Amino acid sequence: MSVHPEYTLSHLAHLEAESIYIFREVVAEFEKPVLMFSGGKDSIVMLRLAEKAFYPARVPFPVLQVDTGYDFPEVLATRDRWVERLGLRLVVASVEEAIAEGIVVDDGKTSRNRLQTGTLLNALEEGEFTAAFGGGRRDEEKARAKERVYSHRDEFGQWDPKMQRPELWSLYNGRIHAGEHMRVFPLSNWTELDIWAYIGREQIDIPDLYFSHRRRVFERGGMLLSESEYNPLRPGEEVAERTVRFRTVGDLTLTGCVESTASTTEEIIDEVAIATVTERGATRGDDRFSEAAMEDRKKEGYF
């Protein structure tokens, strides 16, 4: 008879332990890490994991948000609550300011969401950050699945999928040259369903946008977009009030919502469990331009 009972971790506990290990490895290895924080559910879960990784000490790195100027107010309010509660240093990289300073060019055709890339790269360079935590998950989009936990970026901030480094036995190669940096994805092995299960388990504070609510929306390109001063209607478009929720949050001019009555975490878990389309494919306009839209943006330096 065994003296000690068998010790096993649940699926969620295993994911949590792996992510905490990644956070600690990066802080031990890199001089100036930063956490890219949008105020959305994935970045909030990432911040909760960082909080656990270093408790009772403070999170030992700042958080960086790239502000398009078109962010949902509910998301910014949640961001500020987390920053205040954890006593974090918040770095805001403004697309508006980047345009004014000539860092990126607004040609009147390119979305603010796509102008985030140049704005982000400039902020990473100015901050001399050597590692940037991102909330990417492999189930989000095909290009995400090509990356590993550590994603090397060259001196121009670009990603080459052919240059991925092996990560056998969870050993990570963080060697970089001057001017280069590493993107790190602690949620690489998580799914949207895992994120929601963790939010429910930890009772995590997230924006109300993720839960069912009444909203004035209109249809464009097969998506339901929010009525807003930043979203002028085009000929033939009509606004209607519907019961919706958001699966992901970003630039409100491009982020769609889905019709849903799921108003609790448990109901959202049931809904996500039977979803057949990824959240980005269903509700992110910028990822619909082509089959390789996300991969092209990542090669340019996107998240």
What is the domain tally?
2
Predict the CATH topology of the largest domain: Rossmann fold
Distance between the termini: 52 Å
Strand content: 5-15%
User: Could you say what the CATH architecture of the largest domain is?
Assistant: 3-Layer(aba) Sandwich
Strand order of the largest sheet: 3-2-1-4-6-5
Tally of DSSP β-strands:
10
- How is the biggest beta sheet arranged? 6 strands, mixed
Share in helix: 25-40%
Radius of gyration: 19 Å
CATH class of the largest domain: Alpha Beta
Shape: globular
How many H/I helical runs? 9
Q: Which secondary-structure class do the elements indicate? A: alpha/beta
Tell me the name of the CATH homologous superfamily of the largest domain. Answer: HUPs
Query: Could you name the ranges where pLDDT drops below 50 across 5 or more consecutive residues?
Result: none
Q: From N to C, what is the helix and strand string?
A: HEHEHEHHEEEHEEEEHHH
User: Averaged pLDDT, please?
Assistant: 87
